[in-house]
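Q: Could you predict the 3D structure of site-specific DNA-methyltransferase (adenine-specific)?
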Amino acid sequence: MAQNKNLQKLELTWIGKGDEPKLEPRILIENPEYSYGDPNTENMLIHGDNLLALKALEQDYAGKVKCIYIDPPYNTGNAFEHYDDGIEHSLWLNLMKPRLELLRNLLSSDGSIWISIDSDESHYLKVLCDMVFGRRNFIDEVVWQRAFSPINLKKTLSRSHDIILVYAKDSIGFELNKLPRSAEATKSYKNLDNDHRGPWTSGDLSVGPIIESKVYEITTPSGRKVLPPEGYCWRLSKERFEEYVMDNRIWFGAKGDGVPRIKRFLSEVKDGVTPMTLWTYQEVGHNQDAKKEAKVFNSDSVFATPKPERLIERVIHLASNKGDLVLDSFVGSGTTAAVAHKMGRKYIGIELGEHAITHCYPRLKQVVDGEQGGISKAVNWQGGGGFKFYTLAPSLLKKDKFGQWIMSDEYNADMLAAAMAKQEGFKYNPSETQFWKQGNSSEQDFIFTTTQFLTVQQLEAIAEDMQAGESLLICCKAFQTECKNKFPNITIKKIPQLLLDRCEFGKDDYSLNIVNLPQEDNQEDYDVEEEIENDEEVVDTKENNQKSLFD
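A: Sure. Here are the predicted structure tokens for site-specific DNA-methyltransferase (adenine-specific):
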């Protein structure tokens, strides 16, 4: 018992655990050059470090995202072959943990997160997700058949699947949508007796184990007498069976002499089919499908590891409804955003790499214009909508030539006001009539940021303009000594001093970029075209190794 008790306390541990960065909550700045379509759209494509971008979203989007899909770098081991194995996993886990924690904060109470991964890190990731989301909130793992034929050059096993881990924000009462019934699934429903309720299929009336009260003799319309099979009983009590007969819900066969079966009408069955955990390439596509889709948007530089649109369609269909918010913080070539757009969801995509511009932007632009690739025809996509393109603001503070922290000169007055509102937990919402109301945390709590020297006269003018019950936080570079504590409902803080110990400033990249990596010594060179026949799947090991981690 003691041993079992200790096992229950085990927790995944690694080098550097607990040393999470103190992130600066940046503001987002729209870049109109790459925004496209409906100017009132809520769809966002963010170009910037995904950890900083998630932190930037936290204040406004916490608890609002219904479905998160991410496809993080798989950490194949080759990218870190100049480290020992413990460091390799530690680096990867240290990069994943703060991102997962922020993603959990963004999930709505009925939301879920879907994480693509392969066997190199899937088991470590499962334990890490148990820690972050809670083990009871683990829904299941999906096996996606990403390849449909073996790579004969492999010396051991040719990997043909990826895993998708699924966690709910709260598993209690959590439900997924059903899959639509296929023509194959409804083929067995017929109307052999012209029942006015329409097509039906029949199910076994017998069930085990035996309940004595449900073992009785049934006389068929032809006069034949039948009992349940040995070791079984009928599903229905004798009285309930008679009710089913009167309602024409029992089928005795075309001649009336068959073993009774329960009629189940297509019109009464649950709307859709419960999905299974094995998703074959025939159902949701494979890697070669994904590459063909990606080529349409950038044939010069095909993204190394895209996912097929049908795979993401299934995730979004199961985990959200029209109008819900979908987020992908490793958006890559833009598949999640493109599919969410076509399916009538709102979305946020985050990408650090240049493919935010070279791949995502042209892809989403074509989606708005009505492109007909991927799932377009299946969902009858005709175009429309739009998206806004954002970048992260620079760090609010920088060091001068003397090594002292000062306000960044890249911030204008509006940017500074928005940044300070975010830093202090206020929503930036400038008043059109009162200059000092730049943001609020409630109906009566406001914030005002200024770079000017604050005088008593200015403070008195503001105080006179305030209504009873209102409070104000003023952030400024300097103020007259007499201003401090002059009014009980006005607090004054000096910048940048109030910010210095809160977070890391001056850091724009929390990724781990791998450049010119060594290849495996035993990796054989070969002509890919000779190995691929009939669109065989090839795992792009070299491309995966050189992929910038956590772009």
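Q: Anything worth pointing out?
A: The chain has three domains: 2-180+274-392, 183-265, 397-499.
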